[in-house]
Specification:
Rossmann fold, rod-shaped, 328 residues, alpha/beta
Length: 328
């Protein structure tokens, strides 16, 4: 037997003063009976009163005890319970830093990421999606929603202009994505990160371990090429402090770290076979058969004690109300 609220057993201490009050009430009633009944009826009244007082007090104390036991949440035995039958909660974390505008893959990294997200959303019409973008910090554009039209409108706007905090903070993006799906849910929860992997701020390992602790798998898609490309800047390219064009490369190590720490998987974002594999993996996660279908849970038994408490309370009332031996 186990108890979900064992702390309520402290209330058992209240039974001691309750018992003393009942005993004091019994003594007072005994004195009143002796005064009312006189010498010839006193012994007869007292014998009946002693029996009724004992049984009614015992039943009342048992009622209190059974109510406390029901309050403590007792459970025993195991029962098979079917797991939730539907769905996925998917947080999409899209990197919108300036490096994602590089054109080493055509038309650009951010455009490729947008199309991958659209294909992913279309593949899971019954799932709920949240959309997070990040540069220096993560920002939620939409909380979890099954409304794909809302997501599609935001996807058209993806770009560095969506946030006012420049930089490249992959950890902050993941942190914000976890916040959108981290609350209790009956669905299987995952995060899909779409990025070139470049990051200069935040503790990526710590955030990945937080996701793992929540039981949330992180799948990552890397955009760009290992050779890299230049970042468009007006009519030219972004330059460093020495006047040379900035060269941005896809960094697989950070993305692989996220996936490996959380039980997810890393994919090259532009690879069609990888995209299909990701969809297959997510489909399996959303299928309850892949998680066993049923689980064993302890059976709550508080109703047993509530029923017994009702019986003892009824007995207490009957002993008090029904005349005994025609006396009272």
């Amino acid at each position: 037997m186990s108890f979900s609220n064992p702390e309520v057993f402290w209330t058992l201490l209240l039974l001691l003063p309750a018992g003393l009050l009942l005993y004091a009430s019994y003594l007072q009633g005994k004195q009143e009976l002796q005064r009312i009944g006189g010498a010839w009826r006193g012994p007869r009244l007292h014998s009946v009163y002693r029996l009724k007082g004992f049984f009614s007090g015992l039943l009342l104390m048992l009622t209190f005890l059974l109510l406390i036991l029901a309050w403590s949440g007792p459970s025993w035995g195991m029962s098979p319970v079917e797991e939730p039958q539907n769905g996925l909660d998917i947080a999409l974390a899209v990197d919108v830093s300036r490096s994602m505008t590089a054109t080493d893959i055509q038309p650009s990294r951010i455009d490729q990421a947008r199309e991958v997200v659209r294909a992913l959303v279309a593949a899971f019409p019954n799932a709920r999606f949240s959309l997070v973008v990040f540069e220096g910090v993560g920002v939620t554009l939409t909380p979890l929603t099954p409304d794909q039209a809302v997501l599609d409108r935001w996807l058209d706007e993806l770009g560095p202009h969506l946030t006012t905090s420049p930089g490249s903070n992959l950890a902050s993006g993941l942190e914000e994505a976890l916040r959108t799906v981290g609350f209790s849910s009956l669905h299987h929860r995952v995060v899909v990160v779409l990025s070139d992997g470049e990051t200069r701020e935040g503790n990526l390992l710590e955030t990945a371990r937080k996701a793992a602790g929540l039981g949330i798998e992180v799948f990552t898609l890397g955009f760009g090429t290992p050779e890299g490309g230049r970042i468009p800047d007006r009519d030219s390219f972004l330059k460093d402090d020495f006047g040379f064009p900035v060269q941005t490369k896809r960094d697989d190590r950070n993305l692989q770290l996220l996936s490996s720490e959380t039980g997810g998987k890393f994919f090259v974002g532009t690879d069609r076979a990888s995209q299909r594999e990701l969809q297959d993996l997510l489909s399996n996660l959303g299928n309850p058969a892949s998680r066993g279908g049923v689980t064993l849970e302890t059976v709550p038994r508080y109703r047993v004690f509530l029923f017994l408490a009702l019986l003892t309370l009824s007995g207490f009332l009957l002993v008090r109300i029904v005349p005994w031996r025609g006396v009272f």
